[in-house]
Amino acid sequence: MNIAPPNSNFNASELVSKIEIKVSCENLPNFDTLTKSDPKVFIFQEKVTYANNTKNTYWENIDSTERIKNSDNPVFTKSIYMDYYFEMIQNLRFVVFDMDSDSNEWSKNDFIGYAEKTVGDLISGSQNNVYQCDLLTTIPSGINCSNTKAKFSSKQAKINIRIQEVVNSPYEFTMDIIGSDLDKKDTFGKSDPFIIISRIENDSSLVKIFETPVIKNTLNPKWKNIRIPEISLNNGDPDKLLLWEVYDYDKNSSNDLIGIFKATTRVLFEQNTFELINEKKKAKKGSKYKNSGVIKFENLTRVRKYSFIDFPMNGTEVAVSFAIDFTASNGDPNNSNSLHYRTPNYDMNNFYTLNEYQKAISSIGYVLEPYDTTRYMEVYGYGGMFFNRNEVEFDCSLTGDPNNPSVLGVAGILNAYFHALQTTKLYGPTNFSPIIKKISEEAKRDLLPPGQNNPLPRYYILTIITDGAISDMEKTIASIINANELPLSIIIIGVGNADFTNMKKLDGDNKVLKLNNKYSTRDIVQFVPLADYINDPGLLAQETLKEIPKQVKEFADKFKYKPRFL
Question: What gap in Å lies between CA 372 and CA 458, rounded to an integer?
């Protein structure tokens, strides 16, 4: 469904509300042999398009909760935010899995159940802002999994969906939380403390908004660099009362309460130190009871969290590079079956006269071109012998000048590609790592140190277009993992009908990319098969570039960079 307000004289902000959705479940079945399930909820939104008088629908995974281990009544901390339009039907699907692995692939985990509701259902059918319904055990469309365990479970699982309007605040709170002299709860050790933060609503109900990691075997824990969005913590109200509960984690039994305190964010700034009180222990010890420990807040700040649009609007340029596959598997460009076919009626302004490489270049390039004020983009070739040279190159500038691979706009890229075809001998193999390393070096060149709120001068997008299997998989994975700490996103577009299984492995949507003992900390790769969108350049660009805003924000948030001129 295209979520956009209709044409009218009203400002868009008058037609849209920002809503927060939080999820909990009750009475989930236990699929694990010795423990309870490890549930996680995936949230989908139905998208609808119309073409040739035909309605087409698909479900897009828009977010997910965290995974909670060993629980049949999980209360998920993560909030899901979305725009709500009264005048539109917004269908949502909540799919619950017992996570048996670190992968999000459906077949590797146990399906528990799902619910499908419109946002209107959630609003009109809620009681005290909570909508409750049964989880269905039939398999929803588009999910490839087994429901054998779910449909034979004797338990009727339920899902609770809390929904409320929130202030669209660009701020977040950052803090270090220091505990001292906490009560000892473990018989053969100290305590394994963690904190749960909840909002106390006007009806006195509690909304869990954050949970710190567990710190093992200590009475003096330190939680560093805690970051909580303002809309989650207090919904823009500095006087919203918050409940802070400190627990001792127990793996095989219920967690033990150490103590609690209540405070608003305004009070946190004014007071910064709070005693933990355990009412049961206080009643038992009477006048001898002092407290169950102390919590102190250090480096407490309210800082602006920049949106994606803040970056290009305030001086951060998008540096775009294309890398084109010139391996022999593409076929002779003079043959009409070649992916590099030189069509006789070629017109760069007519999408339907372009070969598959030209279609990919134009679809992506025309969207990205305006975000670089110079309009210059880099163009490389790999896997061929270029400009009549007798060696295979994997990061060859298609301008012919290795020191200046930039051309003006999409027209420049298409021209450089077209002329390179005249003198290039298609060869092989298909190696990605050299071009990823080259662009990574560019991204390092003018990047100031992270963690200091430094300006981000530019963000790099490398688009690799390829026709088939990758030859240097391990080196490519290593170069992607190394690029995680750089302002770089990598788009891979597969052309033709080859087996792109390995390309999908590089896309971190379903699992963490890893090699030996190194893991990716950001998902910076998006893979898209051109064949799925070849006749719709708008949809191709939308599918290919949809993760870029999130990746820019994740990089800036993680490494503390701000827009260039703010």
Answer: 9
The more confident residue out of 528 and 54 is 528
Regarding pTM above 0.90, the answer is no
Find the mean pLDDT for residues 285-312.
92
Taking the C-alpha atoms of residue 132 and residue 159, their distance in angstroms, rounded to an integer, is 6
- Predicted local confidence at residue 210, as pLDDT: 95
Instruction: Identify which of 67, 123, 58, 126 has the alpha carbon closest to the alpha carbon of residue 93.
Output: 58
pLDDT digits (tens, 9 = 90+) for 455-472: 999 999 999 999 988 899
**Residues shown for the chain:** 566
Separation CA 198–CA 208 (nearest Å): 4
236 Cβ contact list (under 8 Å, min separation 6):
166, 167, 169, 230
Q: Would you say domain 171-304 falls under CATH 3.40.50.1000? A: no
Q: How many CB atoms lie within 10 A of CB 298?
A: 12
Question: For the segment 436-449, what is each residue's pLDDT rounded down to a tens digit?
Answer: 999 999 999 989 99
Matching residue, tokens 């059918």: 125
% residues pLDDT > 70 (the chain) = 96
Longest dimension (CA), the chain: 94
Q: Which CATH class is domain 12-165?
A: mainly beta
Measure the CA–CA gap between 20 and 131, rounded to whole angstroms: 13
Domain ranges for the chain: 12-165, 171-304, 310-563
Distance CA 551, CA 497 (A): 28
Share of the chain above pLDDT 90, in %: 59
CB 44 within 8 A of CB 61: yes
User: Angle 433-445/473-482 helices, nearest 10 degrees?
Assistant: 10
Bridge partners of 382? 325
Of 433, 463, 412, 422, which is closest to residue 340 (Cα–Cα)? 422
Q: Is the pLDDT of residue 500 over 60?
A: yes
Q: Over range 486-505, report the average pLDDT.
A: 87
171-304 shares the fold of 12-165 = yes
Strand partners, 163: 21
Cα–Cα distances in angstroms (integers) from residue 530 to residues 239, 411, 527, in the given order = 52, 20, 10
Identify the DSSP state of 403.
Answer: T
Report the 10 Å Cβ neighbour count for 101: 11
* 8 Å CB contact between 242 and 264: yes
The pLDDT of residue 10 is 33
| b/e map 362-400, b = 16+ CB within 10 Å | bbbbebbbebbeeebbbbbbbbbbbbeeeebbbbbbbbe
Mean pLDDT of 529-558: 84
CATH of domain 310-563: 3.40.50.410
| C-alpha to C-alpha distance for 417 and 322, rounded to whole angstroms | 10
